[in-house]
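Tokens for chain A. Residues wanted.
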């Protein structure tokens, strides 16, 4: 069965969207939304290239053991494969993991803009040679010194949403370097305006900050435990107590 894709009409917000409600489909198709302009800054700031990927099963039969293959021409993203167990009849399954890796060295070498293509193929795991649906999306790769506009960053067109995504990236980098970071200004990313990936990263940052606060509340344990408690740096071996050897109502430590 061939995949059928339709572009949604409306205001151009810098994203390419495809798909119709499953109840209007009689085939298997994919919905794809991508960031249509990418450059080296996109790679450096972890701007999501893929915004939506969904499988629409408009048939009366369940689809099982599915595989989605991603490739690009030129190869500005790393190839990737998603595996899906089942998409029921009349159902639409939105893939939660949209992380694709951009090729930074390739983007850094661009001296002028050039078109590129993202290609998605939905195949059956039982019959890998059978393509159930396919979709191609055009992306413009910009030179490293070109600016694609705020509306092309893979987030909403509002400036504060872009700023929130950049702050989230800086906070994530600081956390990975074991340095202090702040959750200030990350409201937009936590609410999903910079994509699902950054919403998840922001939730992880919040959980990490909450843990740090709980550790700070335990700072007094350092004195009462004779220095055993050292917050982040306490090792599990610190909680292994010496063995007690008891004889004649006396005991010693060994």
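Reply:
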């Amino acid at each position: 069965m061939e995949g059928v894709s339709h572009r949604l009409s409306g205001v151009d917000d810098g994203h390419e969207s495809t798909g119709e409600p499953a109840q209007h489909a009689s085939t298997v198709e994919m919905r794809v939304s991508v960031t249509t302009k990418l450059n080296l800054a996109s790679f450096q700031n972890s701007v999501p290239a893929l915004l939506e990927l969904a499988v629409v099963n408009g048939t009366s039969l369940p689809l099982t053991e599915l595989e989605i293959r991603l490739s690009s021409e030129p190869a500005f993203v790393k190839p990737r494969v998603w595996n899906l167990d089942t998409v029921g009849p009349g159902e639409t399954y939105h893939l939660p993991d949209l992380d694709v890796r951009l090729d930074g060295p390739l983007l850094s070498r661009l001296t002028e803009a050039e078109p590129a293509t993202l290609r998605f193929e939905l195949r059956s795991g039982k019959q890998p040679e059978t393509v159930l649906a396919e979709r191609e999306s055009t992306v413009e790769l910009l030179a490293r010194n070109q600016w694609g506009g705020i509306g092309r960053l893979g987030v909403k067109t509002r400036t504060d949403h872009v700023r929130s995504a950049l702050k989230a990236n800086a906070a994530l980098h600081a956390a990975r370097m074991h340095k202090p970071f702040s959750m200030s200004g990350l409201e937009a990313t936590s609410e999903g305006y910079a994509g699902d990936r950054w919403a998840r990263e922001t939730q992880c940052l919040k959980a990490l900050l909450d843990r740090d606060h709980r550790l700070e509340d335990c700072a007094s344990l350092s004195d009462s435990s004779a220095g055993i408690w050292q917050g982040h740096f306490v090792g599990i071996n610190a909680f292994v107590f010496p063995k007690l050897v008891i004889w004649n109502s006396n005991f010693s430590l060994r």
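The first helix runs from residue 40 to 44. Residues 1-25, 150-157, 241-254 have pLDDT under 50 and may be disordered.
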